[in-house]
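Table 4 source record.
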Amino acid sequence: MANTSDIRNGLCINYNGDIYSVVEFLHVKPGKGNAFVRTKLKSLTTGKVIENTFPAGHKIDDVRVERRKFQYLYTDEGGFHFMDNETYDQVALDEAMIDSPQFLKEGSEIEILFHAEKNTPLTAEMPSNIILEVTYTEPGVRGDTATNVTKPATVETGAEVKVPIFINQGDKIKVDTRTGAYLERVKA
């Protein structure tokens, strides 16, 4: 058992019969009244984000989790298949357990959170950004650069990303996996 002073980003807790990860927290000490901790919690089973306020000193049931690096192999009707880089064991996950499955490409590494006592996968976290090749995009029209003009581009995983007009087919780009936004062009 822990209490509210132990709350930090990434902490996994058992709350209302579900396992949640702390996304944001803020310790508040008002001038009048008791201190409290305002949190945003993300369910590791459904992905739903809720807001909750804990009074200061409140006991919370923390869950011990392990982060393990896995390599993405392939997708079929059984789900997304990953291989442990150390033991070569394979695990299959549902699409709902993965943060941004549209950006997964074969061979990419992700972290999977496991419940330490039950040894069951809880969720898969993509790296914050990934480098992908543009497989299709319309050519940019000269003279359309008065403002930040974007165009749709399809990357090698099949996902669509809005890119600046100077990006061409065959270019490699860095994409933010949390928002799906274009970050920069990568030199080959």
